[in-house]
Amino acid sequence: MVESETPDKSFKEALVCFSTWYDDRSLIRKLKVLYQGYIGEADIHNASKTMDLMKHLTDSGDLSSKALTLLYDIIKATKQFAIVDKLRIYIPSFPDVKEWIILKFSHHYQKIMNLGNELIKDDVIKIDNVYNDPPKNYKDGLDLILHLQHKYIISEEKEKNDKFIETLTNIVIPRAVETPSM
User: Cα–Cα distance between 56 and 40 in angstroms, integer?
Assistant: First the structure.
C-alpha cells in the first residue's frame, strides 16, 4: 500500500489526539512493550506520556506525515479502533485498521504485550517472587513484562523465552503458558 502524504499541521494535530487518547486510557505501558526495537531502552523507561514516545518515533523518521503505517499498526495491536473516527478529523484518508495486517511490530512483541494484559495480580506476584528478591511489587502484568525485558529475561531470543515459559509452567500460570509461543 502506498501511503499518501498528510500535511504536517494535520499530522501533528493527529499525534496530539492519539497521545491524549492513549494517556487518558493509561495505555503507555502497552506502547512501551511494542516500541522495543524502535526506541532506546532509556528513552522508553523515561517516557511518562505517549507524546514522549511519539516524538522519538517522529525524530527517528519511523513515523511521519508521509509514513503512517506505524500508527495503523499501533491501533491494531492495541485494539483501540474507536480512535479512528477521531483521527479522520485530521487525516481523512485514515483507513479502517480492524482488517489491517500489522507490518512494523514483530510477532514476539505483540505476544508479550498480550501476555502482560492477560496476567492477573496473583500471577504477577508469583512471577515477581521468582525473579526478584525482594519482590518489586509491580502495578500490573505490563509493568512486570517491561522489567523482565529490561533484565533480558524476556527477549526475542527463543532460548530465553523458552526458559521463561518453563518457569511459568513450573509455577502453574496456565493463561500465560496457553498464550501462543513468544
Answer: 9
Q: Which of 57, 96, 92, 94 is nearest to 76 (CA)?
A: 96
φ, ψ at 39 (rounded to 5°)? -125, 140
What is the maximum alpha-carbon separation in the chain? 53
Cβ neighbours of 25 (radius 10 Å): 13
Counting Cα atoms < 13 Å in the Cβ hemisphere of 81 gives: 8
Q: Count the helices and strands in the chain (H runs, E runs).
A: 11, 0
User: Which are the contacts of 111, defined by CB distance < 8 A and separation ≥ 6?
Assistant: 179, 180, 181, 182
Q: What digits encode the pLDDT tens for the residues 98-150?
A: 999 999 888 888 888 999 998 999 999 999 999 999 999 999 999 999 999 98
Count CB neighbours of 139 within 10 A: 12
Q: Are 4 and 121 in contact (CB under 8 A)?
A: no
Task: Check if the beta carbon of residue 147 is closer than 8 Å to that of residue 175.
Answer: no
- pLDDT band at 1, cuts 50/70/90? very low
Closest CA to 37 of 70, 3, 83, 65: 70
Q: Quick check: 106 and 80 in contact, CB under 8 A?
A: no
Decide: 56 and 43 in contact? Cβ < 8 Å.
yes
